[in-house]
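[Discussion] Sanity-checking designs against the backbone

I'm trying to build intuition for which residues belong where. Below is a structure token string of 657 positions. I'd appreciate it if someone posts a full sequence so I can compare it with mine line by line.
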């Protein structure tokens, strides 16, 4: 279908890859893998026609369509969710509008015997057939299935896209691409902002409905479930394996071992040749043999070993004091924002050494409960942190707490102790800070780089209770393996929020599911939970199938039902405009209140650091008391603003704001 011929790419005279060639066939499901910086995203952009290679070509037959999902994108802010998604069917919609226009013309014409009238009838017939073949009449149902599969609900359909966060906006773009059904899909990290259920839906879609797919992802389970072919970019070359990712890992290990043996043999051969040349260079009787060895040495092509293997690099948490038997007890904890219930009557007890996962759809309260544990927000119920607990907390905004004035190396050097200080460069390399990157100031790092640095910093601090909120979003597979092994060896207690099933597998022994305002305990690992979840949802699936069957019996019924439901949920135009203004005003007030809270929290934190350092003067104590009182008032004001906003949005799910 598509032929990639001798592609080479350089950035500032630095080669990214060289003479890469492979063919993408119809229905190929390809995993494109390699370390960060190997050129995976660049190669996708070249195939999509968004970037030009230094040399080589991508040969795409005419009529082949390509859908490309980048890691970052910009969406229009002047449309609703349903309007933005319908852009995927712009060509089909144009056909339908053309048919309506032709029918309207037909209704007013009376020249029944003319050639123009006959031509118009033929045109209407052709348009009708094209619409039937393209399935235009089922667009509404197809859009609804896709959006719901990616985690949206019907109440979202008429919301402006600007109300959605970056992760949900990425889902909108993904929905548009999937609905277009291109001949080849190029997906760059599509699971970064999806929860487990949405990832499973996407897996099913790619397996059963997609054509050819080239997929970049750090989710090992996702790759295994979708792809059957793996192309690795390494040392500027492309290695093509007709196997899934897990099988590729084994074959790659064997390839590296063969390369290593060949490299060692070559180095021995080079050493022997050089030794012979040096020993007999000045002996006339050996002149011919020496010249022969020199020519032989010049012809040797050096063997490269693909990448340095950090798989044996192990992190170990520094020793920390022992906690009590029950580091955390939560009894009947509930959290509301105004009338919006996040969860209620949450109960869980963690024993020392427990490792548990919080899972569920985005917006169901996983991060909210963690903030309750960290005493960052008020709640109802009883929550007790046990004796001698030292919490290491990795939040999704953890990178903001780094010291911008330090370098990458100094940031880790300040927390590393013992023998680990001798391996700082290796550790930074494992977390993708190699070469000159370790001397970069923190303030010039990207968001992803800061996140990785904050994670490594946390791993070197003496804590006995870890709380990790989406820790793997910016880590490649090898780094995730290093992190996972470190957490396995951690003898403290763990709570981890993650949608990465492979990362959670073998790491946790209990799963807490957040859904429908409840927190439900599931004993066993993540795949035990998923197995139970699938079984428990079979009844729901049967109901959905029954409903779908009824809908499929009448396409018109599908369209009418969808349109009827949409209409019933709509306000009048003027009511909608007025509510939009009120929501915009309330949202701005909430943002202002949040900024004030964040500012006061930073001031309180700075004063706490001074007090901890022994600077307990009367002036500092007065400042601390004053800031604490201001923070409490600001929190109350913020909650009041949130209540107003939630009341305005009571018909809209707040999880995607």
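Best answer:
Here's mine. Compare freely.
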């Amino acid at each position: 279908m598509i032929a990639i011929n001798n592609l080479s790419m350089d950035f500032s005279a630095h080669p990214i890859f060289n003479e890469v060639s492979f063919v993408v066939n119809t229905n190929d499901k390809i995993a494109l893998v390699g370390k960060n910086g190997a050129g995976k995203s660049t190669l996708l952009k070249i195939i999509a026609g968004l970037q030009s290679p230094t040399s080589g070509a991508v040969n795409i037959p005419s009529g082949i369509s390509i859908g490309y999902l980048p890691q970052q994108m910009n969406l229009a802010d002047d449309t609703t969710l349903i309007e933005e998604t319908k852009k995927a069917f712009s060509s089909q919609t144009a056909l339908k509008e053309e048919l309506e226009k032709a029918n309207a013309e037909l209704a007013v014409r009376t020249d029944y015997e003319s050639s123009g009238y006959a031509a118009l009838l033929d045109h209407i017939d052709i348009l009708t057939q094209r619409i039937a073949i393209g399935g235009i009449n089922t667009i509404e149902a197809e859009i609804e299935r896709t959006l719901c599969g990616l985690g949206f609900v019907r109440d979202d359909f008429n919301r402006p896209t600007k109300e959605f966060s970056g992760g949900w906006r990425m889902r909108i773009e993904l929905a548009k691409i999937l609905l277009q059904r291109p001949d080849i899909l190029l997906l760059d990290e599509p699971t970064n902002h999806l929860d487990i259920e949405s990832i499973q839906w996407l897996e099913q879609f790619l397996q059963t409905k997609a054509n050819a797919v080239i997929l970049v992802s750090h989710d090992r389970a996702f790759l295994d479930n979708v792809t059957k072919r793996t192309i690795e970019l390494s040392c500027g070359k492309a290695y093509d394996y007709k196997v899934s990712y897990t099988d590729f890992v084994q074959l790659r290990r064997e390839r590296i071992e063969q390369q290593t043996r060949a490299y060692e043999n070559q180095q021995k051969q080079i050493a022997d040749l050089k030794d012979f040349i040096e020993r007999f260079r000045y002996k006339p009787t050996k002149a011919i043999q020496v010249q022969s060895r020199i020519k032989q040495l010049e012809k040797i092509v050096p063997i490269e070993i693909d990448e340095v293997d950090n798989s044996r690099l192990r992190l170990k948490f520094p020793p920390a004091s022992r906690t009590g038997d029950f580091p955390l007890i939560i009894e009947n904890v509930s959290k509301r924002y105004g009338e919006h219930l996040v969860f209620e009557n949450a109960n869980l007890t963690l024993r020392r050494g427990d490792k548990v996962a919080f899972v569920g759809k985005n917006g169901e309260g996983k991060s909210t409960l963690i903030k309750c544990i960290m005493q960052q927000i008020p709640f109802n119920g009883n929550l007790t942190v046990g004796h001698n607990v030292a919490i290491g907390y990795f939040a999704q905004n953890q990178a903001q707490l780094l010291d911008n004035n330090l370098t990458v190396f100094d940031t880790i050097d300040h927390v590393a102790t013992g023998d680990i200080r001798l391996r700082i460069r290796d550790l930074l390399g494992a977390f993708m800070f190699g070469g000159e990157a370790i001397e970069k100031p923190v303030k010039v790092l990207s968001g992803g780089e800061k996140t990785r640095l904050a994670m490594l910093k946390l791993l070197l601090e003496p804590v006995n209770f870890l709380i990790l909120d989406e820790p793997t979003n910016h880590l490649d597979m090898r780094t995730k393996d290093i992190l996972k092994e470190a957490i396995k060896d951690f003898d403290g207690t763990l709570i981890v929020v993650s949608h990465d099933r492979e990362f959670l597998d073998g790491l946790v022994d209990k799963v807490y599911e957040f859904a429908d305002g409840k927190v439900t305990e599931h004993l066993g690992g993540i795949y035990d939970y998923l197995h139970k979840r699938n079984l428990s949802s079979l009844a729901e699936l049967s109901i959905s199938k029954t409903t779908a069957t009824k809908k499929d019996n009448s396409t018109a019924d599908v369209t009418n039902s969808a349109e009827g439901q949409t209409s019933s949920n709509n306000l009048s135009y003027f009511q909608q405009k007025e509510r939009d203004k009120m929501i915009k005003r309330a949202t701005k007030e909430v943002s202002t209140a949040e900024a004030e809270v964040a500012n006061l929290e930073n001031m309180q934190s700075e004063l706490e650091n001074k007090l901890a350092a022994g600077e307990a003067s009367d002036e500092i104590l007065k400042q601390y008391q004053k800031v604490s009182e201001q923070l409490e008032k600001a929190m109350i004001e913020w909650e009041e603003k949130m209540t107003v906003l939630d009341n305005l949005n009571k018909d809209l799910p707040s999880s995607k704001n």
